[in-house]
Specification:
heterodimer, A: 735 residues, alpha+beta, Aldehyde Oxidoreductase, domain 4, seven-stranded mixed sheet, five-stranded mixed sheet, 27 strands, 32% helix, globular, disordered N terminus, B: 166 residues, mainly alpha, Cytochrome Bc1 Complex, Chain D, domain 2, two-stranded antiparallel sheet, 7 helices, 2 strands
Chain lengths: 735, 166
């Protein structure tokens, strides 16, 4: 990844995506002149449009509007741009987009896109449309929701690449005085065959920048793709292998000191008093701060800060949640669910007559499931480097939400957003944790108090105990089968703690009568998005219950799912493929079992079959077959890697993941009590991809996770006859 | 320490009205021990416990196995002190641990698992514990991988006895 020069960075103000692009699209006149000094730095570099830069040496820089957290978005976005632009892939560089407040203009964007916040269909394939649709995301400017490729890539990078190519062609046509239609492009070279003229993109970079943005650049058809759909090696991998990749935690700022922090163990409590008598005498210590909601020690070195912090005795105020224990959490859910009964709560979907058909059903199935709070456990500890002086704040970090961070830090410090800038680096894992700005706000407050730059790093203990957790939940189901064994009624109510709700509460199966409700349960902990968000809970509930229904109906779990998906050919194809891969139905040794789950999410469709070996003292997942349809896999290797990583992450949670509460505080502190999957526990994973719809792409980062847990617990049932209704599996004994 | 006493200075900001859920940006209490421009403590006093320094100080090598127990204990010293009366660290102080009942170091907060284990630290028990702590005591919070080499374990045990003067 390239770097913004310090000057450009300060000048630019902030870093974030679509912002810049909207500037181009929305501003009257061609703003190239204003943007050029911010983006172009080398000799002869010319800005063509906000998402691509070409220099005189024919180097093409893809300016990507998303964070790179291991998911590979940077490289694949560049791949999409390069294909549309006919660029030599070897000569492509990647730079993360900066945001410039003047262009961000959330208001500016809103003017254009309000009130629908939807881009009119006719505009969608145009440069304007692409940029505007990005503006939709701007208030969030988040790398999340498995959005990068299907949103920014499909609508933005491809359109930008096509536009850049047309501008280069137009510039050459003008100079050579030939019709644009006769010029061909490939590998960053423009050719006019009949006159024998040819030139590199670099030669026309300057002239291209003065061309108008084409209104509707032509994007390639699938048959014309040269890079899209190919497993191009990711550009960020070499630096990650040889150690030169820069993560947020690597930030080096002149005069920087280190901060270690400890927040009040119970969220909502404040630090009343600290005894720092020992810490004051310890080596390297510069400052000790009671920040109200947390204690910080600033020192010459991080370890010194952390050691001194460990000696500080603090007393905390009373807090509302301080008496809460884990048992109370589920008791509270049960009470809320009891209160709403069979028809109360907030109705999410109500079709047909679920209650009436249940009353008349010949067979009734009911079940209750529980899932725990989960932490994110990113490999790179939470950190942020901040400098606050002369009325401005500079931040260095890795974040999924540069704009949100900038806004929240500005608010906390009482600064103008324009005076907060952020340099985004690679993220050593995000999973939703780095979409929130609690960490940079803390760093900025410390830096403001000290007056010099500070790199704040959370210890693993702090990360585990002060995360923004995946909510725990309880879900209750009632289903009715008619006298022919057909599933006719589905009534579900679940607890709900965190907005926005991500899993659309529409069952993906065709069930004529269904009623789905939720009930809010207040809780003092802080919550955040966690890979696949609500699908991580809902999919386990739904896919476990479907399995139970199949058993009650005397049907094979695969058969029942097939029946319910009979009218969704794309879904059925994925389900069938996974079953075929696993040789579903073939005999397994004693104590072994096979389970299936099917979940569409984030626009993609994924089915998984897990095989478990229950002959030992604890469940051992030996194999996972995964079939995924993400519409069109822009980089099949990348999509497969995302499925594999979702399986690791999902299996970790299914087997071990549990954050529990005692006296209002989190009990876990590190990897010994918040365990990760070990390498010897990793199942063999096989992934097959189906390209089911190249126009409507789905996401890849999250959809591989939801089916994993239910596939595993359904397999446990197949092997042992024991139905798991509470996660994680480590809570259960199978001896 | 001289620069600390010279520069130690207490700044109390009365800013925080200690109520309301919005945290104030300003600290409630700010203790400035030293300005960054003041002389820092020499790096030698940095207490970061690295294996390098521990290894450098390693004493004589076990005559029988050829393994230096003290050097081998460096991997444990990351979490354990062993000197008499030294405070417990991430793990409990291990002075005089051999022959003791497990989970008996005063003032250390053990996991429920080790408290319930009912083990007395004989050489054999210690050997199997060190070979695979999680296998021996499932749920222990000693997050250490286990010492696979039996000779190395023996050397560590010998060193623990030695360092305790037994």
């Amino acid at each position: 990844m390239g770097k913004w020069s310090r000057r450009a960075f300060i000048g630019a103000g902030v870093v974030a995506g679509g912002a810049l692009v909207v500037g181009i699209a929305v501003r009257p006149g061609n703003p190239t002149d204003e943007l050029k000094p911010l983006l172009a730095k080398g000799d002869g570099e010319e800005l063509i449009n906000a998402w691509v830069k070409v220099d005189a040496n024919n180097k093409v820089t893809a300016i990507v509007p998303h964070a790179e957290m291991g998911q590979g978005a940077h490289s694949v976005l560049a791949q999409m741009l390069a294909d549309e632009m006919d660029v030599d892939w070897e000569a492509v560089d990647i730079l993360e987009a900066p945001a410039i407040p003047a262009y961000v203009g959330a208001d500016l964007g809103r003017e254009f896109i309000a009130p629908t916040l939807e881009v009119p269909k006719v505009l969608e394939p145009t440069v304007q449309g692409a940029f505007l649709s990005l503006a939709n995301m701007m208030d969030l400017q988040i790398t999340g929701g498995s959005f990068s490729i299907r949103g920014s890539g499909q609508r933005g990078m491809r359109t930008a690449g096509a536009a850049a190519r047309e501008m280069l062609v137009a510039a050459a046509a003008e100079k050579w005085n030939v019709p644009a239609a006769e010029i061909t492009t490939s590998n960053s070279i423009l050719t006019h065959k009949s006159s024998g003229k040819s030139a590199t993109y670099g030669e026309f970079a300057a002239a291209a920048a003065t061309q108008d943005l084409p209104v509707k650049p032509r994007r390639k058809k699938v048959e014309e793709f040269t890079l899209m759909g190919k497993p191009m090696p990711r550009k960020d991998i070499p630096s990650k292998v040889n150690g030169t990749a820069g993560f947020g935690i690597d930030a080096q700022v002149e005069g920087m000191k280190y901060a270690a922090v400890k927040a009040a163990p119970v969220v909502g409590a404040t630090v009343e008093k600290i005894d720092a008598s020992k810490a004051k005498t310890m080596p390297g210590v510069l400052q000790i701060l009671n920040m109200g909601d947390f204690v910080a020690v600033v020192a010459d070195g991080y370890w010194q800060a952390q050691k001194a912090l460990g000696t500080i005795e603090a007393t905390y105020s009373e807090a509302e949640g301080q008496n809460l224990d884990q048992g109370d959490v589920f008791a509270r859910y049960a009470k809320a669910l009891d209160e709403v009964g069979s028809d109360g709560g907030d109705v999410e979907t109500d079709e047909g007559d679920a209650i009436g058909t249940f009353a008349e059903a010949s067979k009734k199935v009911t079940a209750e499931y529980k899932v725990p709070f989960l932490a994110h456990a990113t490999m790179e500890p939470m950190n942020c480097t901040a400098s606050v002086k002369d009325g401005r704040c500079d931040l260095w970090m890795g974040t999924q939400s540069p704009l949100g961070t900038r806004r929240d830090v500005a608010k906390a410090l009482g600064l103008d957003e324009d005076n907060v800038s952020l340099q985004n680096a690679y993220l050593g894992g995000g999973f939703g944790r780095r979409a929130s700005s609690d960490v940079p706000v803390m760093a900025a407050r410390i830096a403001k108090a000290t007056g010099y730059p500070v790199k704040m790093i959370w210890s693993r203990e702090e990360d585990t105990a002060q995360d923004l957790y995946r909510p725990s939940a309880t879900s209750r189901f009632e289903a009715g089968l008619d006298d022919k064994g057909k599933l006719v009624s589905w009534n579900n109510v679940h607890t709900h703690l965190f907005d926005p709700q991500e899993a659309p509460q529409v069952p993906h199966y065709a069930i004529a009568n269904h009623l789905i409700r939720k009930v809010d349960v207040p809780m003092h902990l802080r919550f955040g998005p966690w890979r696949s968000v609500d699908h991580s809970q809902q999919a386990w509930f739904i896919e476990s219950f479907i399995d139970e229904i199949a058993v009650e109906a005397g049907k094979d779990p695969l058969e029942l799912r097939r029946e319910l998906l009979a009218r969704s050919p794309r879904h059925l194809a994925v389900l069938n493929k996974a079953a075929e891969m696993s040789n579903w139905g073939s005999a397994m040794p004693r104590g072994h079992g096979r389970g299936i789950a099917f979940v569409p999410s984030f626009g993609s469709v994924v089915a998984q079959v897990a095989e478990v070996d229950m002959t030992g003292t604890k469940p051992r997942v030996t194999k996972v077959y995964c079939c995924a349809d993400v519409g069109f896999a822009m980089n099949p290797d990348g999509v497969a890697a995302q499925m594999e990583s979702a399986i690791v992450y999902g299996l970790t949670a299914a087997l071990y993941g549990e954050i529990s509460i005692k006296d209002g505080a989190v009990q876990q502190s590190n990897f010994h009590d918040y365990e990760m999957l070990r390498i010897n526990e990793m199942p063999d994973v096989e992934v097959t991809l189906i390209n089911g719809d190249h126009e409507r792409l789905g996401g890849a980062g999250e959809p591989g996770l939801p089916p994993l847990a239910p596939a595993v617990t359904n397999a446990v049932f197949a092997a042992t006859g024991k139905r798991v209704r509470e996660l994680p599996l480590s809570k259960h004994s199978f001896a | 320490m001289r620069n600390i006493s010279r520069a130690a200075l207490l700044v109390l900001t009365a800013a925080l009205a200690a109520c309301g859920s919005e945290p104030a940006a300003e600290p409630a209490e700010q203790i400035v021990v030293r300005e960054p421009s003041d002389l820092a403590i020499p790096p030698a006093m940095n207490e970061s416990p690295t294996q390098d320094t521990a290894l450098a100080e390693a004493a004589a090598t076990d005559a029988v196995t050829g393994i230096d127990g003290e050097a081998a204990f460096a991997q444990c010293a990351v979490c354990h002190s062993i000197g008499k009366g030294e405070p417990s660290d991430i793990g409990p102080n291990l002075h005089g641990i051999m022959g003791q009942k497990a989970a008996s170091v005063a003032g250390y907060s053990y996991s429920p698992a080790i408290e319930a284990a009912g083990i007395t630290w004989t050489e054999a028990e210690m050997d199997s514990f060190l070979a695979d702590p999680l296998e021996k005591i499932p749920g222990t919070k000693m997050a250490s991988g286990g010492v696979t080499d039996g000779d190395e374990r023996a050397a560590i045990i010998a060193y623990m006895m030695d360092a305790s003067g037994s």
